[in-house]
Design goal:
It contains seven helices and three strands; from the N terminus they run αβααββαααα. By secondary structure, it is mainly α. It has two domains: 85 residues, Arc Repressor Mutant, subunit A (Orthogonal Bundle), CATH 1.10.10.10; 64 residues. Strands 1-3-2 form a three-stranded antiparallel β-sheet. A hairpin with a 5-residue loop joins strand 2 and strand 3. The longest helix is centred in the last third of the chain and has 28 residues. The radius of gyration is 19 Å and the shape is elongated.
Length: 186
C-alpha cells in the first residue's frame, strides 16, 4: 500500500532536484549529502536515511526506479523523476519561504538548483524571497509594536525582526553579487 503520511522536506526536494539533473543510482547520491559534499554543507544524510527517503519518494510516485545491471555486480536501481515528481519539485523551487529559519537550508538548496537547472532564473528566485522576507519583517514589526514595551513578547518579536532584517540584507547582497558581471554561479 502506498505511503501517504510522508511530509516532503528539504532532503526530499534535494533528491528530486538531483533527479531533475539526471537519472542515477542511489549510491551516486550519497557523496552529495556527505558532510563535505556539495549539498551536505546544508543537508547531510546518512546512507540508510538516503535510501529510506528514496523508498518514500518511490511510494509517493515522485520517482521511478528501474533495475540496472552493473558489470560484475548485483543489479542496482536507477532512479528517475516522474512527471509528478518534476511538478512537486518545480512548485517547491518557485515558492518563497515564509519561515525565515528555513533560509539556511531550504533556500540555499533552492538557489543551488536554480543555478544548476536550465530555464530557472536565480535572480527571480532571490527577488521573490526578498519580497516574502520583507512581508514577514513587516508582520513582525507590527507584532512587536503591538506588545508592551520591554515585555518578553516584544523581545521575541524584536529578535525575530532583527533576524528578518539580516536575512533581507544577505539576500540583497547575494542578488547584487549575482547580477554583477561575472557573478559567481554555484
Amino acid at each position: 500500500m502506498p505511503r501517504r503520511s510522508h511530509q516532503l522536506g528539504a532532503a526530499d526536494y534535494a533528491l528530486l532536484g538531483l533527479f531533475r539533473l539526471g537519472a542515477r543510482h542511489g549510491y551516486e547520491l550519497a557523496p552529495y549529502f556527505a558532510g563535505d559534499g556539495t549539498l551536505g554543507l546544508v543537508c547531510t544524510l546518512g546512507v540508510s536515511r538516503l535510501y529510506a527517503l528514496l523508498h518514500a519518494l518511490e511510494e509517493l510516485g515522485l520517482v521511478h526506479a528501474e533495475s540496472s545491471v552493473v558489470s560484475g555486480g548485483p543489479p542496482r536501481k536507477v532512479f528517475s523523476l516522474t512527471e509528478a515528481g518534476e511538478a512537486a519539485f518545480q512548485q517547491w523551487l518557485d515558492r518563497p519561504i515564509r519561515q525565515l529559519r528555513l533560509i539556511r537550508q531550504d533556500f540555499l538548496l533552492k538557489l543551488y538548483f536554480s543555478r544548476q537547472l536550465p530555464g530557472n532564473d536565480p535572480g527571480a528566485l532571490i527577488e521573490r524571497q526578498i519580497a516574502a522576507s520583507r512581508s514577514v519583517a513587516d508582520d513582525l514589526a507590527d507584532r512587536a509594536a503591538a506588545e508592551t514595551p520591554a515585555s518578553f513578547a516584544a523581545l521575541v518579536y524584536e529578535s525575530r525582526l532583527a533576524m528578518a532584517h539580516a536575512t533581507i540584507a544577505w539576500l540583497e547582497a547575494e542578488r547584487d553579487r549575482t547580477a554583477a558581471p561575472g557573478g559567481a554561479p554555484l
